[in-house]
Amino acid sequence: MGIFRRPRETPSPSLPAISEFWEWFGQARARIEAQLADGLSTDLAEEFAHRIYKIHPGLQWDLGQRPVLTVTGGGVAELRGLSERWLRAAPPAPGWTFHAARQSDLAKLNEKLVLGEHEFDLNYVRLGMRADPGRARIHLTAYHPDFLFVDEETQLQVALHVLDWALGEDDVARWVGDVKLAIEPPIDALPPATLAAVVDQVAEPFRRPQWLTGEGRTPRGHPAGVTARFPLHRQDHPLCDLHVELSVPYAHSNPDRLPVEPSASALRKLEKRLDGLRGAVLAARVTGDGLRVFHLYADADSGVLAELDQLAAGWGEGKAKVATAPDPAWRALTPFQL
Questions:
Q1: Which pLDDT value is given to residue 240?
Q2: How confident is the model at residue 64 (pLDDT cuts 50, 70, 90)?
Q3: Nearest-angstrom CA–CA distance, 269 and 315
Q4: Could you give the domains of the chain?
Q5: In the prediction, which pLDDT does 5 show?
Q6: Is the dihedral of CA 190, 191, 192, 198 positive or negative?
Q7: Are the C-beta atoms of 237 and 172 separated by less than 8 Å?
Q8: 68, 73, 196, 286: which could form a disulfide with 64 (CB 3.0–4.6 Å)?
Q9: Can you say whether the dihedral through the CA atoms of 160, 163, 169, 172 is positive or negative?
């Protein structure tokens, strides 16, 4: 069971509500701090939730006693940029810590988790782990003896909590692949506290992204070259919600209509410029039929779009075009993913 696929449609976020939240938080902070030890009153908790859900109804929030406040999209890719914007808008608040994604907390793996009417002793959780180096992922099987007595949705919630506490929400999204649920102990299963060490082994060769290349055909039937950055993680570029296609024609090509000199050198020079932009990440490129299309993700508030327009205007081998579309889930990259 793949547990990180989410509905494709989510309501539009309310960015002004972020400012409204922090203004309210400044006014309510003393009341919140006074109630941290015993838990928020019903009225204050409802007010808190109302302010968060005004930003987006899909956001989740956790308030710890230390005090630590986490506002997260709960693994939904569309919401990762929104929670990051919430975090970066936070005013100074001495003594407080804010997070835009759930952090690892190994101590919780030794506690009990209450879901509905069932209490799970997390010391009994075991994970079957299968490394998939080709995809830079770890596939997991989650087991708890009490899974026999609860429905699949409850089993899933236990697994989600355990993975977040073992790795942190962002690393779960980066490195965990398929997750299955089991009512029998997997062979060679390990306690969740060991998961981070296994992930480190799988992730080590990919600390610096590589470029994967492939071949295909254009709509006209000519050869096409495809190159994609791998691995490329949404969580490493949380503010890059805008998909950008920079389409660049080239004047010099071989009989297969693939670029040759001097166009090949000009394209490499342009790509180097694109790969060095601040506020954007170059994700993939497709070449064929006299056209190279660069796929980037950009932070629209960074000013990088003006730089891309200038690069397109300065291209000397034909009319280059820049097209943009909101894509906070990075769905445009689906054809390039393993």
A1: 97
A2: confident
A3: 11
A4: 16-99 (no CATH), 106-206 (no CATH), 210-336 (3.30.70)
A5: 32
A6: negative
A7: no
A8: 68
A9: negative
